[in-house]
Structures are given as structure tokens and as C-alpha cells.
Specification:
This protein has 5 domains: 184 residues, no CATH class; 137 residues, no CATH class; 153 residues, no CATH class; 135 residues, no CATH class; 94 residues, no CATH class. Helix content is 50%, strand content 6%. The chain contains 34 helices and 13 strands. The strands form 5 sheets. A 4-stranded mixed beta sheet has the order 1-5-9-10. A 3-stranded antiparallel beta sheet has the order 3-7-6, with no helix packed on it. A two-stranded antiparallel sheet has the order 2-8. α3 links the parallel β9 and β10. α8 packs across α9, α14 crosses α16 and α23 packs antiparallel against α24.
């Protein structure tokens, strides 16, 4: 049975940060996630959630916040029997009550909005939210269920067939039911959040763990990067003797490990061994090499073999030769790419873990660790202690900071488990050194004991206040096994606190893998086996999804309009959403009172601006208009011109739509044309005269894959497998709606000049230190976005927000060009 939960769009990020919805009174008491939840009249009880057997139509309270109705659909069979209580039946609608938190799942949960504008507005905000981890996974489940308006039915009754109504207009009588007077208990919610956090973190850590060699390479690369950074940013830009030794030894060790693992290096080594041994004198490969080097022809010999290009960490010295930030970025990026290549190869050769083989949770929420790769008794006790937050009582009782309390609490658990053996056990000295580290600020050796559980516990105590700091610390110190420290973090901080940057590797990764994982976790935490646990698939029919407010209304019901209209409507939607349409701009000017009499308008008319077929960015479009009018005639009409430009960019005008349609549908007397015109005019707002006195309000509707005022269907499909050869790379950047408009516009221009630098006769073409590989060029482009040199500013401001957005763009570019 489907049940519907009324709520509002202000709660969207809150709900999808924990993948659950709770009674109103739970949020301020539960101590995790967002403490505020916005009620709606149809669901405003403190102790209980109201659910309805039909889709409720309701309004939200008007205030200064942008807020709209939102309805969540769930399947009652996904929950235990008796989870929902039927309270009443009124006018064909059953009202149900739920006194506890309702967990959601991506298999049967649906989220509905009243319009595409509201849906898109919520998703735009979700992009910017760190805590909303599930909006991408639930994308196929997020739908629009528009309300049919009475004024529209009269016009549309001949066009559309009516289906049986499954919704109802809500009023307070549907919610007028007896509610039990029960105290609010959030204890189970808190425990579930921590268990879920532990499960996710443990599995992500298990799948992210690396071999000892990769772990050491990652640690060395961090150490070398930090040392080189200190040198490049020092006043004299020269290394001290200690720094020079650290760099020299680090490079030597890095190359030894890397050459033993890199398949290209191994292939070269085997080929050289074979060719050097194959000589008429019967010399050994070593002697033959020494002889060729003595004659000074060894390099020539190697060149003739066409050996594969391999990474050499000695390239790091070059950044000290020039001592510039750009050189530093180039060499360290090359080093990081080399490590990532080996790590990716290692991960590809290893199967991902099935969660049911690592962990299990009983119906009473008791944790069982099934992973046999380590001795888990202490670890399980520690995790259960973190579930209960026992370290907090240490903080309160002794008045100490959290890191020390964590270390003390874990030490006491281990001491109680070892009993009489505690004093003689190496763990005693290790824990003592950790406590001294926090109390006396003494040095602490993280790997003074050969025990993954204890060293992971110590790492968490040191850097467990933030997941990003913990991840960085584990890599920097050379950890290979991440699951233990990650698991402690999840059990301590809970699932709701995890940022999407950490969980996306699992949630937004392989869908089949996550489907199996999510269904197993649901069984563990909810005690129910989900039937038909299949993730809905999002349609990917087009590279760019156009969701015009007017066009979508026709397309939504296109099957009910004569087939001969289909092609014309699609063509019209293209033009109605075109980037900076001169034709539409002139139409808008003509509707501004008395504007056709002005010299500004006559100049545009004389220049046949309406017939201009050029492609313009918003800035270029405005500049073209100003130049055509001329500075003298522009001065008196600039305010009106600017308003018209804004209206053109906004362009959701029914008459503008029809004006363009006229040019592609010559037979305006046909019934098909009249039906479309009636449909548009009934739903639209008449704009026969546009007032320049009314300020232009921003349109909250965002087109998927294109920015405001940039709505032409620019081709985004890659024309080349190489980033620097792709003609549509600029359009692809323009289609990234999560980037601010000004950032999109700048990068779309800069990518063109950047590609020219890598084209034949370009600045970087043919340079050995700047190969035309996607790995190099994409990273180079992203780095140049925020690179400053001397008094020359960066392309875009080097803010944390921009860097996070650029990191996302970089990953999308890697995916687009298959990281070739």
C-alpha cells in the first residue's frame, strides 16, 4: 500500500541527509543532523507523522523563505507490520499515524513537487549542500505531480483524457484524529544513526584500503609535496641541508617502490634485459650496458627500442630550478597522477567487499563483526562504546578535552579486557604514550606497536574531529588499512554528519553494487526484506535536458496533440530557449510603450538586428546591442534596453513563444495551431504591453544543463577523445549548472585559448613537460583557473568554494574523456 507524507521543500536537504523523516518534536532533541524541521498544516504534530492513503494537495505557510509543498510516497510493505496505525477514514481518504522515524529507501520511495520550477530550484540548492548525500541517487525518484487548475480544464478538455483522480484537497478535518500522549524518545534514532554511520564508513574504508607499497607511495608523495612547498614559498627559494636530504631520500625511495610496481617500468626492464643479453660476444646484460655507456651510445640504443614512457620522481627537482608555483603544481600533479594510476590498477584487480560478509546487525541492533582479517574483540567493544558515547562521561567527570577522553576511554576498555595481563602487554605502554601525548604534548609514534586496531584508534583520537582531516592524516602517515579508523569515526559522529564528498564514492558509484548494499543494510536496520529491490533508472536520452516552462507544458501532453505538430513544437522550444535571441529581443522592445519611436529602436531596426544569426554570450549580446544603437542614442534609453535584455534572457513569455512559432507554422488557421495557441495563452500571462516601471523579478526556474539566459541547445557531445581537441568543450562547461554563471562564462572563453596553446604551433605543443594527454591537460586547465603570477590575477577567485567546484569539474572532465 502506498502512503503519502506531506512536508515542504525547506526540509528536502534535511530529509536526504539522513535518508529519513521523523516526527516534528524529534529534531530538536535527537542531537544529530539538522535540528530544525519546518512543519506544514497537513503534518504539524509534535509526536507523530501523519500519512494519507491518497496524494494530499495543500498549501504551505507564507513567509520570507522560498518554500513549496513537497510530498513523499512510501510503500508500507517495506516496514514491519503495525509500523503505521490507521487513525480514521474521511471522505474516501485513510489517515495513518507513525510515532517513530520513517527510514526511506531508493527502491520504492518517491518525492513529488507541484512544478518543474520547484523541483529544479530544490535540486540546485541540493547541489550546494554538503549534507544532502542522496539527491543524485534519488534523481529518478523525484517527480512532478502538477495540480490541475479549473481554469485550464475548460480549454484542455478536448485535448486530454482524464484519468481517475488519486489526490485530494486537504483540510484540517483529515488530520483531526486522536493522538496518544507518549513522551518523545530519540534513543533508537541516535543509535541507528551511529550504526548506519559505522556501516557506511567501514565499507568505504575497506574498499579504499591499499597495499603497503601504495600506502608508502602516498605517504612519500605527501611528504615530498610538503617539503617542496616549503622551499618554493621560502624567501630565498633554496632548500636547507635537511630539506635537500629529505627530498633526495624521498625521491630515491619513491622511485624504488614505483619501479617495482609500474607495469611500463617492468616492461622496459624486461625488454632491455632481453636486448642487452642478445649480443655476439655473449656478454651479460650488465656488462653490455656498461660497454654501451662507456662508448656513449647507451641512450641511442634505448631510443631505438621505443621504450615506454615512465614516471621518474627526479622530475621534482625541476620545480626548484624555476622555483615557481606553476612549476611546483606541474611536478607534484605528475607525481600524484603516477600514484593514482597504480592505485586505480590495484583497485580494479580487487573485488569490492559485500557488506554481509563483513558485518551484521541483529533485530535488537546488536553489532556482529564478521571480518576475520584482524582480532576484532577490542574493536567491537570500542565501537559499541562509541555508539553509547561513553567518552562523554569521561569529559564531564574529569573536565578534559575530547581527544584525551577518547584515548582514556579506549584505554580503559582494553585494560578491562586484558585484566592481569595489562601491565605486561605492549598495548599498556602504547596507550600510556598516547595519553602523555595529549596531556604533556610529548612526541608520539603512531606505529610504535604492530597492531592495526590500536594505531587506527590512536589516529582517530588525534584527527577524528573531521572526516577530511582524518582521511588526510591516514594517507600522510602511510596507513594502508582505512576501514578501522573510518569505522570508529562513523560510530562516533553518525551517518547524518558525513559529507557527500566522502560518501559519494559508494552512493554514487556502481549502481548494481550499491543496490545490493542498500537492500542488505535495510534488512539489518529495519528487520524487513525489501521485495523488488531495484534502483529506478534515470532516462539518459539526451545530452542536454531542456525543461522550458512553456515547452514542457506542450511536450507533457504531446501524445494528445496531432502528430504533425510535434516537429514544429520541438523546433519552437529550441528557439524559445535559444541563447540571446535577437528576434525575441526585438519583439520585447516592440511591446515597450512608445519605444518604437526612439532612435535606439530605429538604429536596431535599420541594422536588421532581428535577423542577426550570431551566437553570443550574455556579455557579448549586450555589447552588440550597445554598439548597434550607438553611445549617443543609448544614453536616453539605457534603462529600458537593460530591462529588455533581462526579459529576453528570462524569456518565458507566451506571446514571444507564439511569435517565433508563427515563422515555423505558416498555416495559422489550422486547428492544431489554434489548440496550441489556446493552451499557451490560457496558461501564460498576457504580455501585450510590458511595463518598464515594474522591476524584473528573477525567474527561479533553472534549465537543466544550461544557465539562465543561455538556453540554446548548444551541442555538448565530445567531438574528440582528447580534451584539447574537443570543439564542444566550451559548450560542455557552459552546461555545468552547478557553476556560478560568471565562472561558466569565464571558463568557457578561457578553454578556447587554452586549447589553442596545445594546438600545433601553440605554446605547449610538442613540449615534453606538457604532453597532450587528458591527464595532463585537464589538470593543467583546472590549475590555471586559480593560478596567479606576479600582478596578473587568476581567471576566477581562488576561494575554497571555487576550488571545490573546480574539483568536481575536473572529475567530470576525466569521466567525459575516459581519463585517456
Amino acid at each position: 500500500m502506498r502512503l503519502y507524507i506531506p512536508t515542504c521543500t525547506l526540509n528536502f536537504n534535511n530529509i536526504l541527509s539522513s535518508e529519513s523523516i521523523s516526527p516534528l518534536g524529534f529534531y530538536a532533541r535527537r542531537g544529530f543532523g539538522n535540528k530544525r524541521f519546518y512543519p506544514v498544516f497537513a503534518n504539524d504534530k509534535e509526536q507523530v507523522i501523519l500519512l494519507y492513503s491518497k496524494y494530499p494537495r495543500f498549501k504551505v505557510e507564507e513567509n520570507d523563505l522560498e518554500n513549496y509543498p513537497m510530498v513523499i510516497e512510501i510503500e508500507s510493505e517495506d516496514y514491519k507490520e503495525g509500523f503505521f496505525e490507521k487513525a480514521k477514514e474521511h471522505d474516501g481518504v485513510d489517515t495513518y499515524l507513525c510515532y517513530h522515524t520513517i527510514n526511506l529507501n531508493p527502491f520504492h520511495c518517491r518525492i513529488y513537487f507541484n512544478s518543474y520550477q520547484e523541483r529544479q530550484g530544490v535540486l540546485v540548492k541540493a547541489e550546494q549542500s554538503l549534507e544532502n548525500k542522496f539527491y543524485k541517487l534519488y534523481d529518478a525518484n523525484i517527480n512532478v505531480k502538477p495540480e490541475e487548475k479549473k481554469t485550464f480544464l475548460g480549454v484542455a478538455k478536448d485535448l486530454f483524457t482524464q484519468s481517475e483522480k488519486d489526490d485530494f484537497l486537504w483540510n484540517s478535518s483529515y488530520a483531526n484524529c486522536k493522538i496518544k500522549d507518549e513522551s518523545i524518545d530519540v534513543g533508537r534514532d541516535v543509535l541507528l544513526d551511529k550504526i548506519k554511520g559505522f556501516i557506511y564508513c567501514y565499507l568505504i574504508g575497506a574498499n579504499s584500503s591499499v597495499s603497503n607499497e601504495i600506502g608508502r607511495l602516498k605517504a612519500l608523495s605527501r611528504k615530498l609535496r610538503n617539503t617542496l612547498s616549503a622551499v618554493v614559498n621560502s624567501p630565498d627559494k633554496r632548500p636547507t641541508q635537511a630539506q635537500d636530504d629529505a627530498i633526495l631520500n624521498g625521491i630515491r625511495e619513491f622511485n624504488e617502490i614505483y619501479s617495482s610496481m609500474d607495469e611500463d617500468t617492468i616492461w622496459n626492464k624486461n625488454l632491455l634485459e632481453l636486448k642487452l643479453s642478445d649480443n655476439p660476444q655473449g656478454l651479460s646484460a650488465k656488462d653490455a650496458k656498461n660497454l654501451l655507456q662507456h662508448w656513449g651510445v647507451y641512450d641511442t640504443f634505448c631510443n631505438k627500442l621505443h621504450l615506454r614512457r615512465v614516471y621518474d620522481a627526479n622530475d621534482l627537482w625541476s620545480c626548484l630550478e624555476y622555483a615557481s608555483p606553476e612549476a611546483f603544481t606541474r611536478v607534484t600533479d605528475s607525481m600524484n597522477r603516477a600514484v593514482r594510476k597504480l592505485e586505480a590498477k590495484e583497485n580494479a584487480q580487487r573485488e569490492k567487499y559485500a557488506i554481509e560478509s563483513l558485518l551484521n546487525v541483529d533485530d535488537d541492533l546488536s553489532l556482529h563483526i564478521l571480518d576475520t582479517s584482524y582480532q576484532s574483540s577490542f574493536y567491537r567493544e570500542l565501537i559499541c562504546s562509541q555508539f553509547k558515547a561513553e567518552y562523554k562521561s569521561v569529559m564531564e567527570k574529569n573536565g578534559v578535552e575530547e581527544p584525551l577522553a577518547q584515548a582514556y576511554n579506549g584505554g580503559m576498555i582494553l585494560k578491562n579486557m586484558l585484566g592481569d595481563k595489562w601491565d605486561s602487554n605492549p598495548a599498556s605502554a602504547y596507550v600510556g604514550a598516547l595519553l602523555n601525548h595529549f596531556q604533556e604534548n610529548t612526541a608520539f609514534d603512531l606505529f610504535a606497536i604492530d597492531n592495526d586496531v590500536l594505531s587506527s584508534f590512536a589516529a582517530f583520537c588525534q584527527k577524528g574531529d573531521n572526516i577530511d582531516r582524518l582521511v588526510e592524516y591516514l594517507v600522510q602517515t602511510g596507513f594502508c588499512n582505512y576501514k578501522l579508523a573510518y569505522g570508529i569515526y562513523g560510530a562516533t559522529r553518525g551517518f547524518a554528519s558525513l559529507p557527500k564528498t566522502f560518501t559519494s564514492i559508494l552512493i554514487n558509484g556502481n549502481k548494481d553494487y550499491y543496490q545490493s548494499f542498500a537492500s542488505n543494510v535495510w534488512r539489518m536496520l529495519n528487520g524487513v526484506e525489501i521485495k523488488d529491490a531495484v534502483l529506478p533508472k534515470t532516462s539518459t536520452n539526451a545530452s542536454v535536458i531542456v525543461e522550458s516552462q512553456l515547452g514542457s507544458k506542450i511536450i507533457e501532453n504531446i501524445n494528445n496533440v496531432e502528430s504533425k505538430v510535434v516537429g514544429v513544437v520541438n523546433k519552437d522550444v529550441e528557439f524559445e530557449n535559444a541563447v540571446q535571441s535577437p528576434k525575441t529581443f526585438m519583439y520585447i522592445l516592440e511591446n515597450i510603450p512608445n519605444f518604437t519611436r526612439t532612435k535606439a529602436y530605429k538604429n536596431l531596426l535599420q541594422a536588421n538586428f532581428a535577423g542577426d544569426i550570431g551566437d553570443y554570450t550574455p556579455e557579448e549580446f549586450k555589447e552588440k546591442i550597445y554598439q548597434t544603437i550607438g553611445q549617443k542614442d543609448l544614453k536616453a534609453q539605457k534603462d529600458k534596453i537593460d530591462i529588455a535584455i533581462k526579459l529576453e534572457a528570462k524569456r518565458q513569455d507566451p506571446e514571444a513563444f507564439l511569435c517565433i512559432l508563427d515563422n515555423y507554422f505558416p498555416d495559422q488557421s489550422s486547428n492544431a495551431y489554434k489548440k496550441i495557441a489556446a493552451l499557451i495563452k490560457t496558461n501564460g500571462i498576457s504580455t501585450s504591453k510590458l511595463s518598464t516601471q515594474t522591476p524584473v523579478t528573477e525567474n527561479r526556474f533553472t534549465i537543466s544543463g544550461a544557465s539562465e539566459g543561455q538556453r540554446k541547445l548548444r551541442p555538448v557531445n565530445a567531438t574528440s577523445a582528447n580534451f584539447v581537441d574537443d570543439i564542444n568543450a566550451s559548450n560542455f562547461i557552459l552546461s555545468r549548472s552547478y557553476l556560478p554563471k560568471e565562472v561558466r562564462d569565464v571558463l568557457a572563453k578561457k578553454i578556447i585559448s587554452f586549447q589553442k596553446d596545445y594546438a600545433p604551433n601553440g605554446y605547449y605543443y610538442g613540449r615534453e613537460d606538457s604532453p597532450r594527454t587528458n591527464n595532463n591537460t585537464i589538470k593543467h586547465f583546472i590549475n590555471k583557473c586559480t593560478f596567479t603570477k606576479g600582478n596578473n590575477p587568476s581567471w576566477i577567485p581562488s576561494t575554497m568554494e571555487n576550488k571545490a567546484l573546480l574539483e568536481r569539474l575536473k572529475q567530470e572532465l576525466y569521466d567525459r574523456y575516459a581519463n585517456r
